[in-house]
Please model this.
Amino acid sequence: MSSATIRLTMAQALVRWLTRQFTEIDGVRSPLFAGVFGIFGHGNVTCISEALEAAQDQLPTWRGQNEQSMALAAIGFAKAKRRRQIMIATSSIGPGALNMVTAAGTAHANRLPVLLIAGDTFANRLPDPVLQQVEHFGDPTITVNDAFKAVTRYWDRITHPAQILASLPQAVSAMLDPADCGPAFLALPQDIQEIAFDYPQVFFEERIWSVPRPRPDSRTLAEAAVLLKTAKKPLLIAGGGVRYALAENAVADFAIRHGIPIVETIAGKGGLTHYHPAHAGPIGIIGSTSANTLAAEADIVLAVGTRLQDFTTGSWTAFSPDAKFISINAARFDAVKHRALAVVGDALETINELDAALGAWSADPAHMAHAKALFKAWDALLDTHQMPTNATTPTYAQVVHIVNAAAGDNDTLICAAGGLPGEVAKGWRVKTPNTFDLEFGFSCMGYEIAAGWGHAMANAGPGGLGGTPIVMIGDGTYMMMNSDIYSTVLSGHKMIVIVCDNGGFAVINRLQQAKGVPGFNNLLVDCRVQNRNAPLHVDFAKHAQSMGAAARHCESLADFRRALEWARGNDGTTVLSIASDAHAWVPGDADWDVGVPEVSERESVQNARKMQIQIRAKQRIGV
Model:
């Protein structure tokens, strides 16, 4: 091995190494790190920005407006790239760094890679306390960056310039590991960033990374095949892991060959087109009547690439107590949950091996016919709720239908928290695989617009779909985080943002009242205000226009349909707002376990408590 070295600061070496890492997307070599979202402060502007400026042709830096949202944009990018390419987000110390903690939690919950780099206080502690430093009296080694330990898969604080030699490959390995995938975090003390060190030149040799595909244990796989062959009413639940393993086609073919209906989790939705012959709808709390009926009837459930969270399982009320589970997952932690027969392995490789092990076995054709009949009835129910009426205020379902009809085949729908997730999970008819991003692993308000920026970047890059991101949000989410509308105007990445204004946090108001509590502090009309003449609605179109976006407020569904055509023809980001009904929802939900007061003077709460006890009585034992 060569002993040649090159003298660089730690920050310069970090950036140089990042530019030498590559991945393959559809057979084309591409940079593993596609770019950096950055907001510079005193903790990263003098050293990290100096290195990034010099490398901007290989590693472009994009200016964010908020540290949280730029990291969320990086997550949207990673999701669009199906974990094969990564964006970086860098901040200064203190509040800038802490703003990224929520985004780190979002990436961690969703098993998505993003590299977070934050400045830190001085390792030598000579200037302490420095600007934005939070001091811990009993432990001077703690800084705000320790907060990331709870929400990252890999965490390190670089206290010597040589440490990146070991740390950087470990960070990438964690981000690309299908079992441990998630965010990686590096804390960089300001004085360590500046130190020069003689780095070995071999450290900067180009490397092509790939995502490993672990094979399943042969004995466990054989057990799974034997168990599945006993099924009379099998059901396949496809999760986000199917999409990240690029296993959609294999899973779909497997289901057709063996006569097993496929239902999708929130993260898994979009792996199949809506009218795929094996597709039976979304499952769970914001699922379909078709999928939830099949779940209740299933005797063997094959869960592929899902962690089986409560919105999928109806808090474990959606299945028969006697149903048996087979869980295929790259992560052992997820595979062993809830007494499942755990088959630990890559979704694509495992489903192919299970296919071979099953041979010619197939479920009774009547079972698939039954699933198709249920799905046809569900589709008709959607039509009923999505058709226009004479009502003054449109429903979410009607708005979703119009957007869905206007969307191009390669346009990506992006949504997250609030009432819209339930409406798009149920009512969005996917036209092309992997054009649907509903972030509900963390249900992070503010993800949507930022992620739209990330999707726009991903769509324009190698292997990108090339369509336009369509972001659907409520007024509450818009008010929480909208600054990346300006980011897309500044960077030239087009998206369309649909703001459904229903006067506040409508879906949580729905839950609040369903559990016996009067409407309180959710809808704007129920909030405490000092000025009774204060406006209860924001002019979102004018606000978006002030950031440079094209925008319109739509007075009717017909007006909205025309505005969508206009938005699709625009060159840049366009925002459309429309009033929406705060109390109309598409049915199909499963039960959900939430806390309801055990004692209350309100009869409505007492009744809700009785209903909650009934829900809990239906739960499977989850151990």
Residues 365-386 form the longest helix (22 residues).
